[in-house]
Amino acid sequence: MSADQVKLGLLLPTRGVLLRGDPDADLIFRLAERAEQAGLDSVWVGDSLLAKPRLEPLTVLAAVAARTGRVRLGTAVLLAAMRHPLLLAQAAHTLDLISQGRLVLAVGVGGAFNEAQRREWQAVGVEPSRRAQRLEELVYLLKRLGSEEQVSFRGQHFKLDSVHLEPRPIRRGGVPILLACHLRAGQEAQFRRAAELGDGLISISETPEAYAQIIARVRHHTQQLGKDFGRMETACYLTVNLNRDKDRAEKEADRFIVNYYGMNIWQGLWGPYGPAEGLIARIRQYAQAGAGTIIVRFASFAQEEQLERFLHEVLPALRSS
Fold first, then answer.
1. What is the pLDDT of residues 6-41, one digit of tens each?
2. Are 39 and 76 in contact (CB under 8 A)?
């Protein structure tokens, strides 16, 4: 895929506004409106409950839907297994109706790698070791609740008996669902899960070469299932900082990441940090690797300044390539 065909999205700082110490929810709306006005294709929000506190994602997207009219509205990514599928489906269908069919749910198994993450799962009554199986049941049910009149199900985690859910999603077949895949996780089940249950895939902080391998693994499983990989959406999430001074960009980004996660995790996999040329080149590499949507998160407390740099220094080069 060429860079001028790639759709571009912006991650809205639903955690960043809390890290500032003086939460400014209006910043979310200013960024979303500016992104739409400038021609970006989508805006996205992350998810966490206790481990990385932030604004609730679907509530935020409903408000953003009322302030915008064109951009797609996505979660990157939703810890869906923390929720009951019936309640999540009702919220998603409502948001799909409010936004006139602009919602896309990117969901992931989520982490349980440290005590804060494990406590987060346990706080909502989910055993961390069973979160992947719970997610698979949930996505399966979301697809059925969005496309079938009556749903009955008996699983390990959820049970539904002749459920008919209103409202219905606008699009036939329901709200699109992307499944998170990470090469470094090393588990083949995630690629099979995306192929079997998802309308596409999303990955975060992988090199372009690793992203190409993820694409290849999911394509393999779609072919094994007799499905058409060409119908799958492919998204990639980058964490960037734009500044002509590369040292300043790296220092600001590192400070943001440490505040965001409590440590500098995945060091070496974030970025690029620095001049716009580096980000332009990286996006082109991801496009060649198969990414159809690139979502950028600014590792900065100066979100509006970073967005303006992106719109003036990066977007024109991509749209004219």
1. 999 999 999 999 998 778 899 999 999 999 999 999
2. no
Residues 27 and 244: their CA atoms lie apart, in Å, by 25
pTM score, two decimals?
0.96
> Cα separation of 213 and 186, whole Å?
12
Q: What is the structure's pLDDT at 163?
A: 97
Structural domains counted in the chain: 1
Residues of the chain predicted below pLDDT 70: 185-186, 265-267, 321
The predicted pLDDT at position 266 comes to 66
Task: Report strand pairing: 151-154 vs 159-163.
Answer: antiparallel
In whole angstroms, how large is the CA radius of gyration of the chain?
19
- By the 8 A CB rule, do 128 and 116 touch? no
Torsion angles phi and psi, residue 313, rounded to 5: -110, -25
Q: Which residues of 86-124 are buried (b: 16+ CB within 10 A; e: fewer)?
A: bebbebbbbbbebbeebbbbbbbbbbbeeeebbebbeee
Token code pair at residue 180: 């998170």
301: phi then psi, degrees, rounded to nearest 5: -85, -10
Adjacent-strand bridge partners of 296:
10, 238
Tokens standing for residue 315: 């977007």
Helices (H), strands (E): how many in the chain?
12, 11
Cα distances (angstroms) measured from residue 32 to each of 44, 63, 131, 212, 279: 9, 10, 32, 30, 21
Look up the domain containing 255 and give its range: 3-319
So what's the pLDDT on residue 321?
58
How much is the pLDDT for 237?
95
Q: What CATH number is attached to the domain comprising 263?
A: 3.20.20.30
Residue 29's H or E segment, with its range, is helix 25-38
Other CB atoms within 10 Å distance of the CB of residue 304: 13
Give yes or no for a cis peptide into 77 (omega within 30° of 0): yes
- By DSSP bridging, strand 42-45 and strand 177-180 are unpaired
